[in-house]
Amino acid sequence: MTESEADAVARRALPLLDLTDLGETCTEPRIDALCRDAKRGGVAAICVWPRFIEQGARALAGTGIRIATVINFPDGGEDCARATDDTAEALRDGADEIDLVLPYRALLRGEAAIARDMVEAVRDTCGSAILKVILETGELADPDRIREASRIALEAGADFLKTSTGKSAVSATPEAAEAMLAEIRASGRPAGLKVSGGLRSIADAATYLALADRLMGPAWVSPKTFRLGASSLFAALIQARES
User: Fold this and answer.
1) What is the DSSP letter of 44?
2) Furthest-apart CA pair in the chain: how many Å?
3) Catalytic machinery residues
4) How many CB atoms neighbour CB 219 within 10 A?
5) What is the pLDDT of residues 30-67, one digit of tens each?
């Protein structure tokens, strides 16, 4: 990839980033640093543990950068009441977007209703907030399962499908993203895709941007329809943009 090509990808990708710190040892100083980076890069959102929502909201007030948090994360449990309670608390604290892990093990057992019910319940709780549903595609593995999970989430009201938690052995893959985009297109709904986990290089970002362009059309990609959860990519994108 030439410098000019890398610069073009960086300028396109940075506004699509959900800049994330979901490390087990995350601290308030790290959230401060994350927010500084978010402002420097002009990213779409930060994604943080629920306990850091208020700090992030204060730091980014007035910037237009959104605050996302994770629910039912990373295990994808089946306690619907807890998921809705945690969602309501996150919204009260200032979250704009909810990234909910689908109860994917229920789906693997053939109990799709459990997964559907949780997405519907959290959707109802979200109100006008954005709901991203994390399918954990590396665990679903089979393309037919990924497509089924995509349909369930979309029919239950997801605004975005998201590939992965980044905590499983296999995270995002182009094959999974392609299956998810195909279901978004078939649904006829104005839903988006978030590619998360395993993106390390500008070439990785370029791969997913090209995939979205091919399947959805070059005018489709925007922060309202396409996100990259790729904090490890941030430094490379900034360097390419500013070189």
Assistant:
1) S
2) 51
3) 99, 162, 194
4) 8
5) 999 999 999 999 999 999 999 999 999 999 999 999 99
